[in-house]
Amino acid sequence: MKTHKLFENNSHTWLMFGRDDEKPNEIIDTNQYMVVSKSNALLMDPGGIELFSAMLAAVIKQVPAEKITHLFASHQDPDIISSLGLWDQALPSATLHSPWIWEGFIRHFGMDNITYAPIEDEGGEIKIDNVLLEYIPAHYLHSSGNFNVYDREAKILMSGDIGAALEAPEAPLFVDDFEEHIPKMKMFHQRWMPSNEAKNDWVNRVRKLDIEMLCPQHGRIFKGDNIKHFLDWFEALEVGLTGKNLP
Amino acid sequence: MSEYISGEKNSQPQEYCQDIDYNYFVAAAVIAAKLDQATTIAQQLSLTASNARAVALRAGERAAGFRPLTDFIDRLAEITITASKKINLLAAKLSKTSAAKVRADNAIKHFNLVFTKAADSPFINSLDSAFEHCKINQDRLTRAYQRQIGQLSEELAMLSSELRNAVILATLSRVEASQAGAQYQDALINVADNVEGAAGKIKEHIKYSQQVVSTLQ
Q1: First to last CA, chain A
Q2: pLDDT by residue (tens digit) across A154-198?
Q3: Which of A100, A131, A218, B91 is the S-S candidate for B31 at Cβ 3.0 to 4.6 Å?
């Protein structure tokens, strides 16, 4: 599991964990993110059960266990949070922030100790030390209860499955040539995203945010102009295809 | 386990016994299912007792010796149903403990991997307290698991012992049936056959469960 520092200032740091070369081939590669502030850390989409030991080993090299006080699960998928039963043992005092609609489902992964903090549909905020992070609603992109995390100060949007690409684990960290990257994203977005209406609403809201890095949970991170390229491409893309058009 | 299965204690064909090579947390669920089947058979046995009572009444004086036997059949059915339910509950409890133990074992396995992978981390000791909790939990579950297996084993042995009476009951029923006259004889012999058959089937389920339990010990 590799660790990359995406951002750092006086108040906090953004770390990305991924490109795990010990990961079994059959499971999809995932990116995990962590915001580390003065006394706390928020671990986002901590990943599947298969990744747990690699993730905890990577995380513990950065911060002590007791500093990871918050977990965030953008939605309920196994590659996002099926490791919960083990985090529950490792971080018994932590709080999990996740869409309210998934609480009863996510608890099936095993949660005896961690506290569940449901996020309302309209989103909200979390403040860790002096760092303010916003939950941006991204419902139906792809999950019916789904959030991104936006850091206004770092200008980073953790976009979950939006912007995700299916590619090899050794893929570069950042999108370089956007046109070349499209084939790696197209089927994923057409097949996993069910609603054009939800997609366009999200694009309109996200265009208003000041973003320097758009960080998906699979594939590469978008920076600079590639963020606009992605939003334009995604807005024009027909999703939720069915029948003969099923990608 | 295979040594026991193919040993003298077990007269079942090898193919039959290969089925009991379960993961330990599946085994308890299998036992619960077997005892559930035993309960159903015992309920049928209870119906047999009611039927026998009716036949014996119709047969009058000629089946006077048969009537008290119907009470014994009833009692046998009742004992089996009560014991099966108790064993079923124990097995369900064991199943829950086993599943929790799998999770605890799994957590320990993952922690050990982390201790190897992140041995050079300056923060590795920050996991000690969580690991210690996991170990305590694992020990507690292991003790509960062993205790529950012991209880299950005892209950199965007790029920098996009770069912030995079924053979005597069937034999006595046949003797009494032979004195009930031609008109009722067949019906009462049928009752005896049912008692023997039901007890035999329940014993099979218990024997199977005992074999599964032996793989857990």
Answers
A1: 31
A2: 999 999 999 999 888 789 999 999 999 999 999 999 999 999 999
A3: B91
Q: Which of A88, A69, A183 is nearest to A126 (CA)?
A: A69
So what's the ipTM on this one? 0.86
State whether A57 and B118 contact (CB < 8 Å).
yes
Count how many domains chain B has.
Answer: 1
Measured CA to CA in angstroms, residue B81 lies from B86, B90, B163 at distances of: 9, 14, 12
Query: What dihedral do alpha carbons B181, B185, B191, B193 form, nearest 10°?
Result: 140
What digits encode the pLDDT tens for the residues B53-72? 888 888 888 888 888 888 88
Among A64, A86, A110, the residue with its CB nearest the CB of B126 is: A64
Distance CA B5, CA B207 (A): 12
Per CB-CB distance under 8 Å, the chain B contacts of A63 are 123
Indicate yes or no: pTM above 0.90. Answer: no
Q: Which two tokens stand for residue B184?
A: 């009722």
Question: Which residue in A1, A15, A56, A114 has the most chain B C-beta atoms within 10 A of its own C-beta, making it the best mutation to test that interface?
Answer: A56
B170 token code pair: 């069937």
Chain A residue nearest residue B123, CA to CA: A64
Q: Are A114 and A84 in contact (CB under 8 A)?
A: yes
The one-letter amino acid code at A192 reads W
Domain CATH for B24: 1.20.120
| CATH homologous superfamily of A2-245 | Ribonuclease Z/Hydroxyacylglutathione hydrolase-like (3.60.15.10)
B103 falls within a domain? no
Task: Please indicate if any CB of chain B lies within 8 Å of the CB of A90.
Answer: yes
Containing domain of residue B31, as a range?
A: 2-93+152-216
- Judged by a CB distance cut-off of 8 A, whether residue A111 touches chain B is no
The sheet carrying A68-72 orders its strands as A2-8, A13-18, A32-36, A41-44, A68-72, A95-99, A115-119
